[in-house]
Structure formats: C-alpha cells, structure tokens
TrEMBL record, chain A:
Pfam families reported in the protein's UniProt record: SBP_bac_1
InterPro entries named among the record's database cross-references: SBP
Native source organism of the sequence: Blastococcus saxobsidens
Keywords for this protein: Signal, Transport
Keyword Transmembrane helix: no
UniProt-recorded name of the protein: Carbohydrate ABC transporter substrate-binding protein (CUT1 family)
Assigned protein family: Belongs to the bacterial solute-binding protein 1 family.
From TrEMBL, chain B:
Species of the source: Blastococcus saxobsidens
Domain ABC transmembrane type-1, residue spans: 99-313
Bilayer-crossing regions: 39-61, 103-124, 136-156, 186-209, 236-257, 263-283, 295-316
Similarity section: Belongs to the binding-protein-dependent transport system permease family.
Protein name: Carbohydrate ABC transporter membrane protein 1 (CUT1 family)
Membrane topology type: Multi-pass membrane protein
A GO cellular-component term linked to this record: plasma membrane
InterPro entries: ABC_transporter_permease, MetI-like, MetI-like_sf
Segments for region (Disordered): 1-22
Top-level taxonomy: Bacteria, Bacillati, Actinomycetota, Actinomycetes, Geodermatophilales
UniProt-annotated location(s): Cell membrane
UniProt keywords, alphabetically: Cell membrane, Membrane, Transmembrane, Transmembrane helix, Transport
UniProt GO BP: transmembrane transport
Length: 421, 326
C-alpha cells in the first residue's frame, strides 16, 4: 500500500506539473513537447521556436524538452486527462488510430496538404482511413548493424543477402570464437523485430496491408515467417542469456554488447549508432567499424527484399489546439527546419529537401536504403496497437525460448486481434 | 473520551428531563472543551483520511470499475463488458502461472526463510565474538533499496561476465548455458534466492527482538533443571516467540503476494514468463498494453486473494495471539 501510494503521488505530481503548461485556451500560446533533451537537439529546437515567434508576432511557443521515457509517461497521463499539449509526438499505427477514435487528434489532411504531398510515402503510418493526422519528421529503418572488423576476422567478405548466407555467416563467426548476434529478448520487441522482418519477407505487400486493417492473419505466409525465424533460432546465434537481455540499458544490454565488441551484429533501428555512442566511454560506439546491411531475403518468400521495416516520429496537433499550432507543425516540416534537423544528426529527415544535409555516413546510407524501398512497413506492434502488438511480441519471445511454434505466434496474435474487433 | 462523555449524565441531573429532545446538556465550558476536542480530532485525522481516500480508497474503486469495461486508458469509459475481463484473466495461462509463482514464493519463503531465520536468530542471541558486526551484516541487505539490490544482483548474475558465474566456473561448478536468470527452469529459484538474501535480515531482526523478550529466569530455571542448550531453545525460547513468528509469516505472505520490484529488475517476468507475478501481469497488461480493463480485473483478483488470505490468517492463526492478550 505504501509503495503504491508513493507511485501515485509522483504520478499526480507529474500530472499537475503538466496541467499548468498544457493548453489553457490562450489562442496565442502554443505548448510543444519534444524529446530532444540533449544538445544539439535541445538548443536547435529552442532556436526554431524563437524563429517561429519572430515570424508570427504575438505568438508565444512554450517548449518542453523531456527525456523520451518521461515524455511517453506524461503523454499517457495527458491522454487520460484529455489535457494535451498543443503539439506533441505520435508514433503512428494503432496507437494513433485509438487517439483519433477518442477525438484527441486534429485532422491535418487539408490544412497541411502541401506538406503531406511533399513527404510522400513517409506519411503512410500516420494515416487513418485515408486521412493524415500527424506529419512524420524522422522515419528510420531496421537492419543489421555489424562490426566490420569482427566480420573480417571471421573471414566474411560480403554481407549476407539471404537467410542461407546469414546462417553461413553465423557458422563462420562461431568457428572464429565470436558470438554472432545480440538480441534484447528481455524487452520482447527486439525479438519481435525478427518475426516482423521474416513476415515482411514472406508476405506480399497486399497481404500485409490487408492484415493491418482487417486484423486477419490466416494467410499461410505468417506461418512461413515463423518457420524461417525458427530455423534461424535453431542455429543458436544469440548472446548467452539473451532471454533476459535488455535492449539498450547498460553495457550488458544488446546494444552494449555490440558497442563493446562482444558480439558481431544486432538487428536494430536507426537509433543504434547514437545508443552505442552513449554506451562507450569514448562516446565513439563502434566508430569506423560500424557497418549495416538489410535483413536478408527468405527463399521462396512473396515479400520484396527491398521493402524495409521501420517507423519514426511525427508531429501531431491536439484537437483543441489553436490554429497557429498547425502553422508551427508545418514550419517544423519546412525545408529550412528539416535541413537543420539533418545537419545536427537528430534523425532521418522526411522532407526530400533535407536529404543532402545528413552528414553522418551511417545515417546517410540508411536514408538511401529507406528512399529506395518500395514501401516501409511500420513496426507491427505499433501498427496493430499495444494490445495486439504486446500479445504478438510475447508469443515471439516464447519462440526465442523454444516454447512457441510458428502456429502459436499466429494464433496468439489472432486471438488478441479478435478481442479488438 | 470516556471521561467527557460520562460527565453530563452524572453531574447535571436536570439533563435527564430534556435528554429526549436535546443532545446531552453540558455546561458552557465543558461543551467548549468537547467541541474543541472534536475539532482537534477532526483536524488531525482529516489529512490522513483524505490521503487514504484519494490514494487508497478511490484507486481501489476505480480499478474495480475499470474491470467491467473495455478501456484503453483515455476517452470516456463506455464499452461495458460485464465479467468478460475476469473470464479473460482467469483463462489466461500467463495469469494463472503468475498466481502459481506468487504462491510458490509464499510457501518457499515460509519453508526456507523461517527455519533459516530462526537458526540465525538463535545463533546471534548467544554470546559470540563480533555479534554486533554479524547482526549488521545479516541486516544490511534489508536496508538496501530494493532497486539497488536488484541491479547489483542483475550484474552479478550476468551470464559469462557476471562475478558469480566466473567464481563458480573457476572452481569447476558448471553454470547453465543461458545463465541463472535466462534459464526458464532456474529463473524463479534464482529470484527466490535473491529475495531470501534480501529479506532474511527482517526475519532475524524480528526473531531476535522476540528472543530478547524471553525472561532470563526461565533460561536459568531450565538450566538448573538440567536442560541442555537445545532443549532450552526448543521448549522455552521458540514457543515463547511464537507470536512473533506468526506475525512474521503474515508479513512475509503479504509481501510475497505483492512481489514486484525485484522480479521486474531481475527478469521483467521472463524468460518465457517463468517468473511473472500478479503484479508484473498488471503492469504488462495495464501500462504497457493499455488493456486497463484486464489490468483492473487482475488487480481485483489480486486484492481478493490477498484479502482472503489476510482474513483467513487473522481468524485461524493470529486470533490466538490477540486472545492471549485479552
């Protein structure tokens, strides 16, 4: 009892802190929450807010930079109370659809038609029934980050392009005494990404698009995805204790193991170089040994091997925000701001005008892959929403523990999906 | 209180006449003290009651209400589903396994920590060298913050690189391939070992306090009668601290049912749901998946189990102690 009331106390303290800053009906004050609470991002966004204020006399932008996890918690509380900041971040998919259904998010389709046109396919993850509710400012893709020096040591000359080649590489690494892959299966979603990718390679685009809306997973390609993953797991490529390994926290996490050269590769998103830099003492991460290759193709799979799994962050405007909040979001997606965003290596910009401004070579390579992809599949757990996504991730994590069959993953996902209908 | 309420009837005979129509009549000054005392009580009790209402009573009722709805955590609560959430919770293997894990910890604590704690308490009650130091060592883990202790053990138990594994393998003891926390069959036992390390200190402290309340004369008398040290402990010391032991069992039981922090840090409920508890199930369904209805139903089940066990224990076991006092 004591403990739980202490938790509630802090939550309520957070909540009341948010109240004073959230939209209070003042038409000329815009509250904006973002998660770039470290330099250079923090300072850059402060500058952006000042520039916007200068261009729109009388408008006051209240910026709140909050660490990512704290922002997620505060947003959760804000959604519950309905007292939202005017401009905030949406991750898209089922979560956004729920917010739309509850009438919390503003439809931007008409007000920002020009920007939506410019962003092209990137906005797909933030559309509900053809209407756009948020503008993505950074969209990344997931792939294998690897240590080029360790690959060389094991005698691997070319990045694996098929699952068979990946298995061969795993054997070579093991023979050289190197642990091939780290995975943060303790957090479940990193394990989930493997199945998402095998499904992306096994299933055609139409099947996947259909399943996201109909929540029907009866197509045999989903079982095929599980079989491909099971084959990979059976080669025992993962770090010892991977079932409880966290994704990114500390040197013993999956990212930490790659950063400290304990393993040769890890499946992760565009955030990985930044995370690894934070986990090494010299803030270099793998430095110039950083390599990246896309998830390999599955033999006989219907999916396009060029299609990528990804996701990102978008600026959304809450339903009751003043109209100037929409202007701020449009400004945030302008050529000028996106270029600055890219120059500061804050993510993978979505505005094509900013493509050339990305300076980090690893991110520049990813951007190329992303823009060459016929389509980007939003992370399944985000696309299906937390409830179905959570059940799916649980079942996938069980397969990593050798306790679920390919059919079990499909059944568990379908069962959770049926509860949503 | 009794002094004040008894006063009017005895000192003011006239009051009896009008009592039916009015409140007990008291003289002006008495009425003032009475009112003042009531105000004082009100003043001192209100903040506590208000906190209790806001942070305990209201959440309990709101969780109960949530459990009858399908609700994502925002927007109006309108999708009434009756008992469906309860059916889903009770049919969910992860939840029933979690209940089994909770009860495993409840019984393992009593079966292992009780004898161990008692033995250590009896030992530390003797006049041995460095007794104060030993008592401190035993008690320190209990004082450590749970999260800090959890993180330390998490690092010690890391496969390959963790200190514990390196120590064991350097003396030739085989360690599991996936580490102690990563092997589904060993994870719960490992968590229990850490919990025992953490909470043994409390048991020893309570038992020691109990033992110090055993009068020296009894020891002396028994020794005069020729009883050995063992006989004195078994026949005199332990029976006399039985009420303390019963209280400790109660605390341990409730703590085991609410188990969360240590599990969350060490395994997060994994691997393969091998260490889930009812509380980790609540978090994973509620805050992580926004199935607040399911989480509400699970929390009501947890509350009922805890409540039923507390009441049963009170009636069947602890009543003896309260009776003995009266």
């Amino acid at each position: 009892m004591l403990c739980s009331s202490a938790v509630l106390l802090t939550v309520s303290a957070c909540g009341s802190g948010g109240d004073s800053n959230a939209s209070g009906g003042d038409e000329n004050t815009i509250t904006w929450w973002h998660n770039s609470n470290n330099e250079p991002g923090r300072g850059y966004y402060e500058q952006v807010a000042e520039d916007f204020e200068a261009a729109n006399p009388g408008v006051n932008v209240e910026v709140e930079a909050v660490a990512h996890e704290d922002m997620v918690d505060r947003l959760e509380a804000a959604f519950q109370s309905g007292d939202l900041p005017d401009v905030y971040m949406e991750r898209g998919g089922g979560e956004l659809a729920d917010h739309v259904e509850a009438g919390l998010v503003r439809n931007l389709s008409e007000d920002a038609a020009e920007e939506i046109e410019k962003l092209g396919g990137n906005v797909a993850g933030w559309q509900v029934d053809g209407e756009t509710y948020a503008l993505p400012f950074s969209v990344g893709v997931v792939g294998f980050w690897y240590n080029t020096a360790l690959f060389e040591e094991a005698g691997i000359t070319e990045a694996p392009a098929t699952m068979a080649e990946l298995s061969a590489a795993i054997e070579q690494l093991k023979a050289a005494g190197i642990t091939p892959i780290s995975v943060g299966a303790g957090d479940k979603w990193p394990a989930g990404h493997y199945w998402y990718y095998t499904a992306l390679r096994a299933c055609g685009q139409d099947v996947l698009e259909d399943s996201v809306t109909s929540l029907d997973f009866s197509d045999p390609c989903f079982v095929q995805a599980g079989e491909a993953l099971q084959d990979l797991i059976e080669t025992e490529p993962f770090n010892p204790g991977f079932l409880t390994t966290p994704a990114q926290e500390g040197a013993t996490s999956a990212s930490g193991l790659l950063a400290t050269e304990q393993v040769a590769m890890e499946l992760a998103g565009h955030w990985e170089p930044g995370v690894m830099q934070g986990l090494t003492e010299d803030n270099e991460g793998l430095g110039e040994n950083t390599g990246w290759f896309p998830f390999p193709a599955i033999e006989g799979g219907e999916g396009d091997p060029e299609a990528q799994l990804g996701g990102g962050d978008a600026w959304a405007v809450s339903q009751n925000a003043p109209d100037t909040a929409v202007d701020l979001v449009k400004y945030l997606l302008s050529d000028e701001v996106q270029q600055g965003f890219a120059e500061n290596d804050m993510g993978l910009p979505t505005n094509p005008a900013a493509t050339d401004s990305v300076s980090d070579p690893a991110l520049a390579q990813l951007l190329e892959v992303r823009d060459a992809a016929p389509y980007i599949q939003l992370y399944f757990d985000t696309a299906f929403g937390a409830s179905v996504g959570g059940a799916m991730n649980d079942a996938i994590a069980l397969m990593f523990a050798g306790q679920a069959s390919p059919e079990d993953i499909v059944d568990a996902t379908q069962q959770a999906a049926d509860q949503e209908k | 209180m009794t002094r004040v309420t008894a006063a009017p009837a005895s000192t003011d005979p006239g009051a009896a006449v009008t009592r039916g129509a009015d409140a007990p009549r008291v003289t002006g000054r008495r009425r003032n003290t009475l009112r003042r005392q009531r105000l004082e009580i009100l003043l001192f009790v209100t903040p506590a009651l208000a906190l209790m209402a806001i942070f305990v009573v209201y959440p309990v009722f709101s969780a109960a209400r949530m459990s009858f709805y399908r609700w994502k955590g925002f927007g109006p609560m309108v999708d009434f589903v009756g008992l469906q959430n309860y059916l889903r919770v009770l049919a969910d293997d992860v939840f029933t396994d979690a209940v089994v894990h909770n009860f495993t910890i409840v019984f393992a604590s009593i079966l292992v920590q009780l004898p161990l704690g008692l033995a250590l308490a009896l030992l530390l009650n003797r006049r041995i060298k460095a007794r104060g130091l030993l008592r401190t060592i035993i008690f320190v883990p209990y004082v450590l913050a749970e999260v800090i202790a959890g993180v330390v053990w998490f690092q010690l138990l890391q496969p390959r690189t963790g200190l514990l594994e390196r120590m064991l393998s350097s003396v030739g003891i085989p360690v599991p391939e996936q580490g102690f926390l990563g092997t589904p069959d060993l994870a719960l036992a490992t968590v229990f070992v850490v919990l025992t390390w953490k909470y043994l200190g409390l048991a020893v402290l309570l038992f020691l306090a109990g033992l110090q309340g055993v009068p020296d004369e009894l020891h002396e008398a028994a020794q005069l009668d020729g009883a050995s040290w063992w006989q004195v402990q078994r026949r005199i010391a332990v029976p006399l601290i039985a009420p303390t032991i019963r209280t400790w069992i109660f605390l341990s039981m409730i703590g085991s049912l609410q188990l969360f922090d240590m599990v969350w840090i060490l395994t997060g409920g994994g691997p393969a749901n091998a260490t889930t508890t009812m509380a980790t199930y609540l978090i994973s369904q509620g805050t992580q998946r926004s199935n607040y209805g399911i989480a509400g139903a699970a929390s009501v089940v947890l509350f009922l189990i805890g409540f039923a066990m507390a009441v049963a224990y009170q009636f069947l076991v602890l009543r003896r102690d309260t009776k003995a006092d009266a």
